[in-house]
Amino acid sequence: MTPLEDAQAFVLGSCPPLAPIEIGFRDAVGLVLAEPVVSTEQVPPFANTAVDGYAVRAADVAQAPVELVVADEIAAGAASDHELQTGECIRIMTGAPIPPGADAVVMVEDSERLGDVGGHEHVRLSRTVPVGAAVRAAGEDVEPGDELFVAGTVVAPPVAAVLASVNAATVVVHPRLKVAVMSTGDELVDDGAPLAPGQIRESNKTMLAALVAEVGCDVVDLGVVPDDEATFERVIREAATTCDAIVSSGGVSMGDYDVVKAVLGRIADMTWMQIAIKPAKPFAFGRLDDVPIFGLPGNPVSSLVSFELLARPALRRMMGHRELTRPSVVAIADEPLQRRADGKVQFMRVRAEFGDDGRLHVRPVGAQGSHQLAATALADALAVVPDGDGIAEGGEVATLALRGDR
Question: The pTM is what?
């Protein structure tokens, strides 16, 4: 059997990032930068106030409380060309530019409007402020030439906001993958029709399409492909001409009817593996016209685990991600994680939650059979149980999250 680490290295080494493209920054959200972003603009572009209040000369409020003449008013988006003189202040709103002659801002909470006094509006300011108080300097956040983001940065919504703030209209990113998803087998029914003897409802494709979408890929649903060599070859060749990767479920086990193996063995460069893990021992990987094909086992839990350990990291790498695997945490087993020695690493489906001790605690979800998806559906982590007799209650076990942002 192939060690899991060897299988993962083989797959990842065969799935390099796609060639970068240049797109508008709004369309880049969720994608990975292939080149650094260097600012060509200053942020903020002018000195402005961080609060609503009164722009002043700090020297004029050194002996607060003081009464000053309100010489002007500036709203956000406006400006004043009045140069502040001794004994004057200007009413100013958050984000508005600091007027000429002012060097500080007194918050509105520290003011009292006195109304018209001698033909001019007056205000009493009750707090002393130093030079620079509540003033955001021009370029305080970003200066031209600053490298804002390195290659490998994911364009999350806050990143997109920064790109907008410096007018980085386009960025160079690794493109979003278009991934074909299919299930194979005459026994599968996905149209809601009554089941004939020997038939079952399709579920793997539904699950895999959602998992692929969760990675951030565009999903092309190829449906259920029957056990017919000509049909399977036509479908997979068409997928290889229009998609960046193909994820297929079924037809990779040792005893499976050999339509998948016969066709892929003839038209693609495939490697058929028996990996030293449980579930998800059978796995196939190859390329057709340079398009990666992930052949996952047909048992639903095996398909899930195989996708998480092998296909998901590879798809993320193809989109330029640097962090390929789900977060891993050492947890405490609140119940025994029982198993028998068989030469395989076992990935048990568990529920995980943080306890009062600040540690992650896990419990098995129940039935662990590779066909028992209902029991697995509520699992939010995989406990990595090495070959042997299992993990005793209270023992430590490595876990992989099944939820999260990567």
Answer: 0.87
